[in-house]
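Bench notes, bay 3.
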Amino acid sequence: MSLEDVVAVYERARAEGLRVARIHSGDPALWGGTQEQVDRCAAIGIATEIVPGVSAFSAVAALARRELTIPEVAQSVVLTRLGGGKTPMPPGEEVREFARHGTTMAIFLSAARSGQLVRELLEGGYPTDTPVVVAYQATWPEELIVKCTVGTLEETVKEHKLWKHTLFLVGPALDAHGTRSHLYHPGHFHGYRKADPEARKALRSRGAST
């Protein structure tokens, strides 16, 4: 259905006093074509409510048993896709530009051009041994979760004949160990817990020296 076809259903439902539930895969806030529907409904006086979903990148992180923001390794997550698809990328939003941050990236809609993806990741500064999680049809019965590196990403995609319904998680956080969050450190305090004085001193001393 085109947008016009979908809106026609909305208008018919309004005329008949019905409610419409439009189901989107993943989280409708990401590549869901949601805004154009909401805007069109607002223009014709149809009230809407958006119920958030679970994005594929969150589902894949859980399946891979990995946290994407590891203390001292990565504290940001970039959600993007490779340029050259159906929707043009705005200037400055190329994968190679985001890769310069060196943090965790979740890359959607890019399996069909895995060679280009690898080139841009390398051009952006990721070493070839940077860990990658490749997820095909995550949370579906036939899901496939494979771990590889930036250097072996293209061959992994081709080996499994992946070209759609595939998400890549990329970054050093995907195999990082040995760091510790301050949140659960005995030297950290918050509204429900007092800090241990000695642990607090040690934590502050460590922060000043790094």
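Next record in the batch:
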Amino acid sequence: MTLRAALLTPLGRLVVGETEGVITSLRWSDEGAADDSPLLRQALAQLAGYFAAERQTFDLPLDWGEGLHARVRRAMAAIPFGQTRSYGEIARAVGAPAQAVGQACGANPVPVIIPCHRVLGAAGLGGFSARGGVETKAALLRHEGTLLL
């Protein structure tokens, strides 16, 4: 059973999902989500701290997935706050084609916490599958002081 709780952020309402003691989803949504658990409270507090510029990292149990997706998610999670990597750099790190890395980034079930917004294209921002698309990605990068436009 998945429990869900929501947080209003400067970029919209985020709904965090927990299944069997790990964070399994984070998405922009207007759905009702008022479950409660120690892990959901911790996740919401860490997200609130991130958006208040009081926190730069997350320390939550996550569902990393398997195979290439897990390798890409761990590589994204290793990108420090305020820094970026290209799809090509991640591809070289995990031993996969850049296109496959882009697909894995797009399939990231916990954006922000696993910072897929920190992965950029060779000649621009690249894509972003969350609500608001590239505009939301740019806002997250500005929040971290990475994108100064």
